[in-house]
Design a protein that fits this description.
The chain is of the alpha/beta class and 372 residues long. It is 41% helix and 15% strand. The chain has one domain (21-370): TIM Barrel (Alpha-Beta Barrel). The chain has 14 helices and 11 strands. It binds ligand 9MR.
């Protein structure tokens, strides 16, 4: 099926969310989205289209809590272009239809990433620079053409920076200098970042173009190196008159990572000083095995850590916060063997618990949005 003429609005998919009641749960009536909106802040979450369609509790929580949605996998290459030239907007259409019916904004993730690549893509990129430029242009043109009416902010490039040596991230990755070594880098050198941004601006001149990455929040030598690498990259892009509007801090936090407000605040202010918006795009928080036992103590530790980071970011001018899912039940933190706990416990790193009850992290976010 070609993409021509197939805008998302015409995908014909109906979300079951339209008739959803709003699950208030415990706590104040307003969801986090309303609490945030009252202070000029946008709160959102990553969503999984299948769950929106099949799980009323999940859909009701999203409807209640979030103003802004980002598809957790439905807008990645393997979902959108499983075979070269054959685009599939079905899964993304489910999310888009839910957003439309529930009057939520939608952001896109991600036009260029080294993961979630369909099988054909890496071999195509390995054929050389001309071929790589061709597939990049074709994807961006088709996808932005289809999503333009409903998605006004895209993570154009995702995770392009390497993890500095010594980083504790489990997913250690090969690097070429400050850049992550990926099929895109091997095909085009670091210019693929500039190229993707220019292609996106050309296709959709008023789209917000975002660079998204992780490991930028903590008070560690490697987070500082990565912050400096991001600042240098942004500076170089802007000097080359490359279009760029925002930087997304994923904020996959870890409760035992050292944190001080000053380095993060200085970084955000540096980016804002260059005219960029700064978003928190994928917030969640991994626990440590050293936390005191008992759910209350664990939740309190996560909440305190999240409040420091989010409070710092908001005070430095960040105006958009998205969590990477709302509930502990559906999170990559319990599914992904690289990050899940190894002691039989499950991370509780989201605002809602596995039964969709609001936890201390929910309260911490509400307090941060309210400025307290
Ligand atoms: O949470 C996402 C998981 O469900 C997917 O299987 C995976 C591959 O598409 O991507 C996960 O989301 C990642 C995001 O796209 C980029 N930052 C890290 C997120 C967690 O791995």
């Amino acid at each position: 099926m070609g993409l021509a003429g197939l805008g998302l609005a015409g995908c014909g998919v109906r979300a079951r969310g339209q008739a959803l009641g709003v699950a208030r749960g415990d706590g104040p009536a307003d969801g986090l989205g309303e609490v945030a909106r009252a202070r000029g802040i946008t709160f959102g979450t990553a969503v999984q289209g299948e769950l929106l369609g099949q799980d009323p509790l999940y859909a009701a929580a999203v409807a209640t809590e979030a103003q802004l949605l980002v598809p957790e996998w439905e807008a990645k290459w393997d979902a959108l272009q499983p075979r070269e030239g054959e685009f599939d907007l079905g899964p993304l259409g489910v999310v888009a239809e839910f957003a439309r019916a529930q009057r939520k904004q939608l952001r896109g993730h991600a036009l260029v990433w080294h993961q979630a690549m369909p099988d054909w893509l890496a071999p195509a990129l390995a054929e050389g620079a001309t071929r790589a430029r061709g597939v990049l242009a074709a994807h961006i043109q088709a996808v932005l053409g289809a999503t333009q009416p409903v998605i006004r902010d895209w993570d154009v490039v995702n995770e392009v920076l390497a993890n500095p040596p010594g980083s504790r991230f489990t997913a250690q990755t090969p690097a070429r200098g400050v850049f992550r070594d990926t099929p895109w880098l091997r095909a085009l050198g670091p210019d693929y970042i500039d190229l993707a941004l220019r292609l996106a601006r050309e296709r959709d001149p008023t789209l917000r173009l975002t660079i998204n990455d992780y490991g930028l929040e903590g008070d560690t030598p490697w987070a500082e190196q990565k912050r400096q690498a991001m600042l240098a990259l942004v500076r170089a892009l802007l000097q080359a008159r490359c279009p760029l509007d925002a930087v997304g801090l994923q904020a996959h936090l870890q409760v035992d990572e050292p944190f001080r407000p000053e380095p993060l605040a200085g970084f955000i202010q540096g980016l804002r000083g260059m005219g960029l918006a700064v978003l928190i795009t994928e917030l969640d928080c991994r626990e440590s095995a050293n936390l005191p036992p008992g759910l209350e103590a664990r939740d309190a530790a996560v909440a305190a850590y999240v409040q420091q980071v989010v409070g710092t970011a908001l005070a430095a001018g960040c105006r958009t916060v998205l969590t990477w899912g709302l509930s502990d039940r559906d999170s990559w933190l319990i599914r992904d063997p690289d990050v899940s706990r190894r002691d039989g416990q499950q991370h509780r790193g989201h605002p809602l618990d596995a039964a969709f009850r609001r936890k201390a992290m929910w309260q911490a976010l509400a307090r941060s949005f309210a400025g307290g």
